[in-house]
Amino acid sequence: MTKSFYPPLRTLMGPGPSDVSPRVLAALSRPTIGHLDPEFIRMMDEVKEMLQYAFKTSSPLTMPISAPGSAGMEACFVNLVEPGDKVIVCQNGVFGGRMKENVERFGGIAIMVEDEWGTPVDPAKVEAAFAANSDVKLLAFVHAETSTGVLSDAKSLCQIAQNNGALTIVDTVTSLGGSELDVEGWGIDAVYSGTQKCLSCPPGISPVSFSQRAVEVIEQRESKTPSWFLDQKLVMGYWGGGAKRAYHHTAPVNSLYAFHESLVMLEEEGLENAWARHQFHHSALRAGLEAMGIGFLVEEAYRLPQLNSVFVPEGVDEAEVRSKLLANYNLEIGAGLGALAGKVWRIGLMGSACNKQNVLLCLSALENTLSAMGANITKDRAIAAAEAVYSS
Amino acid sequence: MTKSFYPPLRTLMGPGPSDVSPRVLAALSRPTIGHLDPEFIRMMDEVKEMLQYAFKTSSPLTMPISAPGSAGMEACFVNLVEPGDKVIVCQNGVFGGRMKENVERFGGIAIMVEDEWGTPVDPAKVEAAFAANSDVKLLAFVHAETSTGVLSDAKSLCQIAQNNGALTIVDTVTSLGGSELDVEGWGIDAVYSGTQKCLSCPPGISPVSFSQRAVEVIEQRESKTPSWFLDQKLVMGYWGGGAKRAYHHTAPVNSLYAFHESLVMLEEEGLENAWARHQFHHSALRAGLEAMGIGFLVEEAYRLPQLNSVFVPEGVDEAEVRSKLLANYNLEIGAGLGALAGKVWRIGLMGSACNKQNVLLCLSALENTLSAMGANITKDRAIAAAEAVYSS
Description:
The first copy, chain A, is an alpha/beta fold. Chain A has 13 helices and 13 strands. In chain A, strand 6 and strand 7 (150-151) form a beta hairpin.
């Protein structure tokens, strides 16, 4: 007979999921009600309003997709890409590659703009791609690359797309709630995110928002969207229908309670304060890591505060370090992906996990573990360096 | 400033979600861990094993899709249907119509077999459809139609498909855990379900299982699956990969804790006992409703115990009754859909909600509400009739 599952109590400082606040966990376990219950519909409306605040948009087509971030990505591409459409896809990490897959699976033509992993999307290359190709329908790029920890200049990239009459699809999975994002101000047409990063909710929901321009393009599609579940015309009838909601699918009731609570917490803190908090604790973590002699993959100007890709000291088996952190400190940090596997760790400071206790735990656990393994690091400096930031 | 959301405490006797056990709610709110954590991977393996038990299959390709039942449906169709494929789709309610949408959106040709809403799929019509069409790749039908409360003879329908060399896709959203289902014994090739019906978990996850034959067809596809999120070749690498799991998407960690706990509870009760419990409480509810003079839409032989479609007494505004039940008793029952809107209610007895307290609450609340509205019903008999079943 299988036993109930009791998870260990971890500190989550990987690339996500991040630590979930007890308030959000408590909301998650409130009694389930019907997805057509008037009280649930009232809650859905509040979720939409708070999500508009988080994305900085007034678009009524702002809602959570009932599935993880990869489904949010797919919701954007499957609705906006029709067979034969040209899409400029910027790739500077794992998730640009997934965007290419999306374009091609829906019959589009992906025009790739490649930048090295660990560097941002180069606006000049995007300009050149537009100059070399006519009738480009969409520009797609990742705002905050979770695989490398790089922030790209979304505002400038959107401006280039607008100058060329193209729509934009922007991945903000790791930026929403952690880095400046202004969906309406920057003119983003389709944006998706995840709940398990800087919003500190369990994974499983993907907030999205579409501009009026994007909605018009969706409404004028020549072919039926090759997905029933993600057909935004149908989803809008459910989420956008007010009192006259048309049944589409059964919403994940409890997951939405949790998402609601995480948005209440964001509203209480204030969006700009949340961005500043991520930057502040990043500074302390950086000071500690650098004092230890551990360097960053990404140049400072493009570095994400919430996702720190740092070099593994030479001669150290990075997987062994992660295993020891988990076994001895219940601390999770992330491995490198793709070409960066074995070379970097990804240390997350996202949402609720972005706090002083976690910064100090991570620094001391890492220092002790690396010292015991005989790694060439500078000892006994990291905590003081971080504390200096905190008392500055 | 938006306030935290505290849902009312409802009794859920609609078409789903059903009441969620406090054990499952408690599991849902356990601390989040990483989706690649060794402890989480161990839990995933237990979920797979218990799901094999629930579906009665030994297929290793048995796993939960990280999205609601409609995505589970789509996972079956998007992987198995290629452009030009002929699919016989049986429609005797809402969900057969959604299957047709799925077939056509993926470029298949849907050959419709229609039966009246409230009646089961007629095997003779399916035989005739196979006789009239060559090279049919798939037969798709709904085992337990949530929109009407009808059970179709899945075993016979699968046999017809096998005799004609076709694969089967079967919707068991409302049957899993509530009515006899034998995926391997009946030779079902692709099956999907939901968590929010007879498994009494919150909505948001869709268990699926594929036979070896189905997997071979998926592996030999000529075109790439037009979905990245639901591409079963990729999902299998994640759920089927054992220790060497390939990252695909971030699993909905907490929702899977809850699903795990609901499967532990099913194992503890025993699958056959769960089926018998649904039948037993249905008998009591039926006795009470009939004593009140309320009749059933579906003939007894095809009636789902967990979803009771009953006629609204003449002259009664059915929506007003449902509003009063919700306002005065915190009791949710379901409305009729499509052609049955306004004519029937759908009373669910699913999973944890399938118990004596709920049966008695529903009968007395309905009787009091209808009496107060002056409906022509027989009074003061329903509870005694139900109690007679319980003491028999």
